[in-house]
Each structure stands twice: as structure tokens, then as C-alpha cells.
């Protein structure tokens, strides 16, 4: 029996915590919270004996060995559990009711040392840990693959994909009280004294000694994105922080449920990975402000422009200018980073599910769609760089060169009549002067970076090249 596929559609309000609590109650001998597993076994024995007495039978007919006890626990789980796990996969754990000597269990997963299918004692370190689903849950690779495959089919029927969201500098910005500057002192005052724009997006978390500012448009973004994606939070922050941020972003527990992945869930130090996301990589998009942490999944990544509301955030990344909070301003709701990326996500989603696409849905890859959409941004542009790369540096290896190519531009080392843009830090170089004389665009490197973040070609006149050292 499958605990989800063979059961009715579950209520979306059911949480992963209900699942964890049930498992802890029914499989108590497999939990770290139960120091004496033999006591739990005795309870099951007593239950079986009492049931037999009620039927007027002979208790000697019952086989009460340890394996029977374990199978009985699995039967309890199988017959009683009707709960949506916190992923859309609904963590479909398959159990076996009547077992025989000929049955061979594949041991799809382990909770607290017991196989979730047959109840056999297992190595706690086997499989991959999914502690954000249940603190003691580990799944075998074959089971992970099966769950991903099954859930992808279900999700595609709903015309949805997966979206993994970073927290800090992507959806919000946080600062410790101690790091607030004099110019940010007004933030500590009464909420009634705050500017209207901050009253519903700035949170004072006294027990955490910090403030959090939600990025403009974030609630509208989540609402719209939830129609197209099943969403995860994935942060390098601690779990307590991640859960608190999830409550601020999703107070009604509508979007994420228990799909909140924190630093302690990662399988590789200082790296994020899709190995602990129960979604096929071919259907996953990632929004994050840091590319380096996604070393194995850059093809899934949409890089976000960092949100620096607090002064401490600007200092962290070496910016000498005043922060948004110090200037008492904020990003635009309609033209800010989240509104912009939502339009990109909608375009990618529409392209992926385009009915004129020749390949079947199951064979499509959102990473290829992402490449196609991105290449439209600077399509038709031919770019030459001057005084941008260090001397003797191979231009093809520079991130700006690679970025321009990803955006659809053609990059060259030498000028010719087909060149449309010269990207420079110095208007006095030979190539810069050539661009002016030939009526080509002479732009600052920020022109490429802006196109990358905003997903559209920017007005060249907004990115002039000057002799100023503080460009």
C-alpha cells in the first residue's frame, strides 16, 4: 500500500510536523526519544493479546517474536497514516502488510534505525538524510529516484515546476541590533512612527536581537509564483532562523509547509545541493544571490541582484555608500528585483509548457529553456572589451565575457565593422576612441551586469564611460 498514491487527496493544511509526530508516536522504539525500545514492544504485545482475548481466542496461537512486533508497527502505520508530507511528493512511503519468507525488502528508507517498509533494524547512516522532513529520516538512492520520478509526473499534470528560494539578500535582509548605525536609529522607534512603506515589511525580533526587512513585492511574488511552482526555502542560515523567516514570509503556511532546508541539512560543507530536494533537476529553478554555493547546479540558477536594505549588509559586501535604510528609501515594488524575476519565471514556465513543443513534458528540461530565454537578452550584440580584464588575462575566461555570451551576445577580442558595443573602463583607450569615431556604443561593464539582473537590454546612455575612479 502506498501511503499517498492510494489514498485520497490530502488537505494542503496538513503539515510535516503531523507526519513526524505520528511516526514518533507509532514507531517510538525507533526514536531517539525512546531510551527503552523493549517497552514499546511490550505495549504492542499487550495490544495483540488484548485483541485476541476480546475475540475469545487462544493467545498461544500468536507468534510474538521481535520481527512480528516490528511488522505490527508497520501495519499500524500503514492502516492509520493519511497525511500529506511537506513536499508535493507527499513522501510516498510504501509499506508491506503481509510479509513472507520469500519477500525481499529493498529497504527504501530508515527512520531511527528501522526500515520504513519492513521494520528491520538498519544502519542509521545508510542513504541520504532528509532531516527537514523528519529528524531521523534517511532515504535510499533508489527510493529518492522513484519519489522524484513519481512526483514529477504529478506536478507536470498540474502544470507546475519546482522553485528553490534563497533567503538573505534574495527575499529579505536582516541586521543585528548592534549593527544598526546612527542613521538607522529611527528603525528602533515605535511602529506607528515608521514610514508607511515599512510598517508591514519591517520586523523587530527581540528574542533574536535582530531586525528583518522583507524585500518589496515579496508577498505578491510568492502568491503568483505558487501558481506555477512548488516552492522550497534553502538557506545557509541556522534552522531556527530559517523557520522564523518562513513564518514572516508565509504566515499562513500556504507556500512552503515544511519544505524549509537549512545549513544543517546540507550534505556538503559550504555548498547547497539539489540532492536533498525531492524534485527532478530537469524541472528545478533556483533563485539565489550567490552563485558560488551552487557549484553543481549553476545551470538551474537565476542569479539575483542582492538586496542591501541595512547598512551592515552594505559593509559586509564592501559598499561604501549609504544603505537604503539610511537613505530612508527602498526598491521599487513594480520594477524591483522580485517583480522583474517574476516576469522571467512566468516566461520560462510558459515556454516549458508550450503546447507546440515537440518533446513530451517528461522529456523537457527547464535548464534548456532557461538558456534559450537568457540568450534573447543581448541577441544581435557584438561586444569588444577594453581595459576591463587584467593584463595577460584570457578574456574568454573572464566572468563578464561569459555573462555576455550567456545573454546572447557575441564577444570578440578585436574591433571590426560588425562590432556594436565596446565595453570599457577607460574612454581613452584606442578601442574606446574607435567606438566613438565609428558611432558604436561605448558602455561601462555595468551595462552587461544590469542586463543580466534585469533580463533585458538596458539603455546604453545610462551606462557611460568616464575618467572618474568612482564609477
Low-confidence stretches: 1-48, 50-70, 72-102
Q: Give the rounded overall mean pLDDT.
A: 82
SS-based structural class?
Answer: alpha/beta
Sheet with the most strands, sense and barrel status:
5 strands, parallel
N/C terminus separation = 65 Å
Helix content: 25-40%
Q: Name the beta content range.
A: 5-15%
What series of H and E elements makes up the topology?
A: HHHEEEEHEEHEEHEHEEEHHHEHEEHEH
What does this structure look like?
With 471 residues, the chain is an alpha/beta fold. Helix content is 30%, strand content 13%. It contains 13 helices and 16 strands. A 5-stranded parallel sheet has the order 10-9-5-11-12. It has a 4-stranded antiparallel sheet with strand order 2-1-4-3.
Provide a short characterization of the protein structure.
By secondary structure, the chain is an alpha/beta fold. The protein has helices at residues 16-26, 37-54, 66-80, 141-157, 196-199, 218-225, 239-249, 311-316, 337-352, 366-374, 399-406, 430-437, 446-454, and strands at residues 109-111, 114-115, 128-129, 137-139, 161-165, 172-176, 202-205, 210-214, 229-234, 260-261, 284-288, 301-303, 382-386, 410-412, 421-424, 441-443. The protein has 13 helices and 16 strands.
Amino acid at each position: 500500500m502506498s501511503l499517498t498514491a492510494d489514498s485520497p487527496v490530502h488537505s494542503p493544511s496538513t503539515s510535516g510536523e503531523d507526519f513526524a509526530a505520528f511516526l514518533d508516536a507509532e514507531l517510538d522504539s525507533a526514536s531517539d526519544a525512546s531510551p527503552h525500545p523493549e517497552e514499546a514492544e511490550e505495549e504492542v504485545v499487550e495490544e495483540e493479546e488484548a485483541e485476541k482475548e476480546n475475540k475469545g481466542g487462544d493467545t498461544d496461537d500468536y507468534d510474538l517474536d521481535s520481527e512480528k512486533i516490528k511488522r505490527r508497527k508497520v501495519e499500524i502505520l500503514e492502516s492509520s497514516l493519511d497525511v500529506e508530507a511537506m513536499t508535493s511528493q507527499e513522501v510516498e512511503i510504501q509499506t508491506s502488510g503481509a510479509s513472507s519468507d520469500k519477500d525481499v525488502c529493498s529497504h527504501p528508507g530508515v527512520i531511527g534505525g528501522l526500515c520504513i517498509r519492513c521494520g528491520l533494524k538498519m544502519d542509521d547512516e545508510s542513504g541520504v538524510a532528509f532531516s527537514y522532513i523528519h529528524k531521523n529520516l534517511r532515504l535510499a538512492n533508489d527510493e529518492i529516484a522513484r519519489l522524484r520520478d513519481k512526483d514529477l509526473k504529478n506536478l507536470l499534470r498540474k502544470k507546475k515546476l519546482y522553485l528553490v528560494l534563497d533567503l538573505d539578500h534574495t527575499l529579505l535582509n536582516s541586521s543585528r541590533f548592534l549593527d544598526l548605525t546612527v542613521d538607522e536609529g529611527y528603525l528602533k522607534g515605535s511602529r506607528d512612527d515608521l514610514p508607511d512603506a515599512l510598517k508591514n515589511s519591517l520586523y523587530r525580533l527581540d528574542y533574536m536581537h535582530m531586525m528583518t526587512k522583507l524585500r518589496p513585492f515579496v508577498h505578491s511574488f510568492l502568491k503568483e509564483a505558487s501558481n506555477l511552482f512548488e516552492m522550497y526555502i534553502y538557506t545557509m542560515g541556522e534552522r531556527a532562523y530559517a523557520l522564523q523567516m518562513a513564518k514572516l514570509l508565509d504566515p499562513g503556511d500556504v507556500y512552503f509547509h515544511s519544505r524549509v532546508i537549512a545549513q544543517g541539512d546540507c550534505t556538503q560543507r559550504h555548498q547547497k545541493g539539489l540532492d536533498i530536494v525531492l524534485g527532478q533537476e530537469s524541472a528545478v529553478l533556483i533563485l539565489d544571490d550567490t552563485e558560488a554555493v551552487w557549484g553543481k547546479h549553476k545551470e538551474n540558477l537565476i542569479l539575483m541582484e542582492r538586496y542591501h536594505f541595512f547598512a551592515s549588509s552594505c559593509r559586509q559586501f564592501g559598499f561604501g555608500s549609504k544603505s537604503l535604510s539610511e537613505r530612508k528609501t527602498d526598491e521599487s515594488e513594480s520594477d524591483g528585483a522580485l517583480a522583474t524575476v517574476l516576469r522571467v519565471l512566468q516566461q520560462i514556465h510558459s515556454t516549458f509548457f508550450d503546447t507546440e513543443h515537440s518533446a513530451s513534458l517528461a522529456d523537457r528540461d527547464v535548464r534548456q529553456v532557461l538558456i534559450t530565454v537568457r540568450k534573447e537578452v543581448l541577441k544581435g550584440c557584438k561586444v569588444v572589451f577594453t581595459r576591463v580584464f587584467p593584463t595577460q588575462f584570457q578574456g574568454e575566461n573572464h566572468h563578464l565575457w561569459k555573462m555576455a555570451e550567456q545573454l546572447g551576445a557575441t564577444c570578440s577580442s578585436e574591433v571590426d565593422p560588425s562590432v556594436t558595443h565596446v565595453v570599457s573602463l577607460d574612454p581613452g583607450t584606442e578601442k574606446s576612441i574607435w567606438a566613438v569615431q565609428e558611432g558604436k556604443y561605448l558602455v561601462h561593464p555595468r551595462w552587461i551586469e544590469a542586463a543580466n539582473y534585469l533580463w533585458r537590454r538596458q539603455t546604453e546612455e545610462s551606462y557611460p564611460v568616464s575618467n572618474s575612479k568612482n564609477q
